[in-house]
Design brief:
18 strands
C-alpha cells in the first residue's frame, strides 16, 4: 500500500455518532477479506503534521495496519496541540491472519496532548509459527503536557506475539484522571513501559501496568517511572 502524508495549519478529522455511518479515517492498510482478496504487500507509512493543531473526534482514526502477509507501517503525528475526543483513536494493528508485524506509533506534541474518551493503541491479534522473530514495535509519545481524561494508551497482544513497548516523555505534566497506560499479552511477553518527565506526574484513578494472562508462556514487562 502507498504512504499517506498530510500537512496543514489545522487538521480536523470528524466521525459520526452513528455506528452504521462510514468510517472517517486517515489510513494505509494491507487487507485480507472476501472483497479485497489477500494482500501480500506491506501497509504504507502515515504522516500527519500541523503547524497549529490536530483534532480527531467522534470515532475518527489515524492508522496503518496489516491483516495478512505484509507489515503494518509507521504512524507519525506531530503538532503543537493534539486532541483525541469521543472515541477517536490513533493505532497500528496486526490482524488474526497476519504475520504479526505491527507498526510503530510516534507522536510529537510540543504543547498539549489531550485524550478525552479516546485511545492510542497498538493491537496484535496474530498467532505465528516463530513469534521470537517478530520485531517488537513501540508506541512513543513526546508532549509538554499530556492529559488522559478517560483516555487510554495501550499495547496489547491477544495471540502469541510479544506486546509492543510504550515510551512516554513529558515536560510540564502528565495527568491520568482517570486514565490508563498499559501493556498486556496472552501467550507472548508483556511490553515494557518507560515514563520520563521533568514535571508533575498525577494519577487520580489512574493506572500504569503490564500483564500476561496466559498459563504457559510470557513474562510481564518492566515499568520505569522517573519524574521530580
Amino acid at each position: 500500500a502507498g504512504s499517506v502524508t498530510i500537512s496543514a495549519a489545522n487538521i480536523l478529522v470528524k466521525g459520526s455518532a452513528d455506528a452504521e455511518a462510514p468510517r472517517t479515517e486517515i489510513a494505509s492498510a494491507a487487507h485480507a477479506n472476501d472483497y479485497d482478496l489477500y494482500s501480500n504487500g506491506n501497509a504504507g507509512a502515515v504522516n500527519v503534521s500541523a503547524s497549529t493543531s490536530i483534532t480527531l473526534t467522534d470515532g475518527a482514526s489515524i492508522s496503518s495496519s496489516t491483516y495478512y502477509n505484509g507489515r503494518a507501517g509507521t504512524v507519525q503525528v506531530s503538532a503543537p496541540n493534539l486532541s483525541l475526543l469521543n472515541g477517536a483513536i490513533i493505532q497500528s494493528e496486526a490482524g488474526v491472519d497476519s504475520t504479526g508485524q505491527t507498526g510503530n506509533l510516534q507522536l510529537n506534541v510540543s504543547e498539549r496532548f489531550l485524550l478525552d474518551h479516546a485511545q492510542l493503541s497498538i493491537k496484535n491479534r496474530a498467532n505465528v509459527a516463530q513469534p521470537e522473530k517478530i520485531q517488537t514495535s513501540s508506541l512513543q509519545v513526546k508532549a509538554n503536557t499530556l492529559v488522559l481524561d478517560h483516555g487510554e494508551i495501550s499495547a496489547a497482544s491477544s495471540g502469541n506475539v510479544a506486546a509492543s513497548q510504550i515510551q512516554i516523555d513529558f515536560g510540564k505534566s502528565l495527568h491520568l484522571s482517570p486514565g490508563l497506560i498499559t501493556t498486556s499479552a496472552v501467550s507472548g511477553n508483556g511490553g515494557a513501559i518507560s515514563i520520563l518527565g521533568n514535571g508533575l506526574m498525577l494519577l487520580k484513578q489512574g493506572q500504569v501496568s503490564t500483564s500476561v494472562s496466559g498459563l504457559e508462556n510470557g513474562n510481564g514487562g518492566n515499568i520505569s517511572v522517573t519524574a521530580p
